[in-house]
Design goal:
Structural class: alpha+beta
Largest sheet: 5 strands, mixed
Shape: globular
Order of helices and strands: HEEEEHE
Radius of gyration: 13 Å
Strand content: 25-35%
Number of helices: 2
Number of domains: 1
Helix content: 25-40%
Number of strands: 5
Length: 101
């Protein structure tokens, strides 16, 4: 599961090194899939099975990233793994210019 702590730590590393950071996490052997986490300029982007499922700022004080975001990301992954198209209704891609979806 994606957690707030994980994303904040990756964001901290990205800012400290002044460069984008990407991490690929393997999921359970049953699905043989990978979660891709990319952070650049305090923007979190998450991809799963080739789908862009989440994009949200981590920049404070504008960030609303939290437990609900992580919960929705977990739901999306579960729905994709179960071939349920309802995952498309949960995808969140924040607009980079004005902070809206």
């Amino acid at each position: 599961m994606i957690t707030i702590g994980l994303c904040n730590e990756l964001n901290y590393i990205s800012k400290a090194f002044k460069m984008p950071i990407s991490v690929i996490l393997g999921t359970a052997p049953r699905t043989k899939s990978f979660i891709e986490i990319h952070i650049a300029d305090e923007m979190l982007r998450i991809f799963y099975r080739g789908q862009h499922i989440w994009q949200e700022t981590l920049k404070q004080p504008m960030s609303n990233f939290g437990v609900e975001s992580c919960s929705d990301i977990a739901k999306i992954i579960f729905l994709i793994d179960n071939n349920n198209e309802a995952w498309k209704n949960l995808v969140y891609i924040e607009n980079l210019k004005n902070g809206t979806q």
